[in-house]
Amino acid sequence: MTIRPILVIPDDKLRQETEPVEKIDSDLQTLIDDMFDTMYAAPGIGLAAPQIGVLKRLAVVDVSKRDGEQVPLALINPEIVWSSEETSFYEEGCLSIPDYYEEVERPARIRVRFTGRDGTEQEIEADGVFATCIQHELDHLDGVLFIDHISKLKRDMVWKKAVKLFKREGPQTYTPKPKPPRAEGDEAEMPDEL
Ligand code: GNR
Ligand code: NI
Question: Which CATH fold would you assign to the domain 6-170?
């Protein structure tokens, strides 16, 4: 159980390209497990490796409902192989852009090819919040943030505020605190929105 510090804008690492994962060994699986621990603690529905300062093509996702079973999905070297013409809007947030939420338009459905934590190649189709989340995470692997999909006016406002804070107080990394495991009767303490 290792929760890693999450980087916050304007950290340079959030704007860089990432390197493909070359081999799936126990070090990589430990990294993936740390990413799940960090994501669940935040709490978030996804986390990309650059958000903890690791410039690799790797992300984790879990969009399961708060009172359901966890459905952890590790995406190694993911690629979108198809996306729908149809788009949809979803209000997005990002653990690396604290306290800011905005509607983003993206393809409503996608097909994504990736290697799983066990090393097997997989292809899945996603829609709804699952499709949104995967696209948000894949963007991170190319240094792209959800604010790049909103108006320049709003983006500049968010970015400038973060730069001001950075100049005054330095890098704003934060380490989420562990959350109790989900059990019967815990539901009321979980937030409705992630
Ligand atoms: O926790 C998160 N919630 C979220 C909500 C709407 C669209 C995307 C996301 S991903 C985000 C976690 C995060 O920053 N992943 O990179
Ligand atoms: Ni994000």
Answer: Peptide Deformylase (3.90.45)
Q: What is the token pair recorded at 117?
A: 């934590």
Which H or E element spans position 161?
helix 152-169
All residues with CB under 5 Å from ion ligand 2: 94
pLDDT in tens, 133-180: 999 999 999 999 999 999 999 999 999 999 999 999 999 999 999 987
As given in the structure block, the two tokens for residue 24 are: 């799936």
C-alpha distance from residue 41 to each of 62, 98, 131, 175 (Å) = 12, 15, 22, 9
Residue 192 alpha carbon to ligand 2 centre in Å: 18
Enumerate the active-site residues: 137
**Residue carrying structure tokens 């603690």:** 41
Contact 87, 107 (CB under 8 A): yes
Domain range summary for the chain, segments of one domain joined by +: 6-170
* pTM metric for this prediction: 0.93
**Side-chain half-sphere of 124: how many Cα atoms within 13 Å?**
15
pLDDT tens sequence across 27-56: 999 999 999 999 999 999 999 999 999 999
Q: How far does the centroid of ligand 1 lie from the alpha carbon of residue 95, in Å?
A: 7
Q: Cis omega (within 30 of 0) on the bond before 178?
A: no
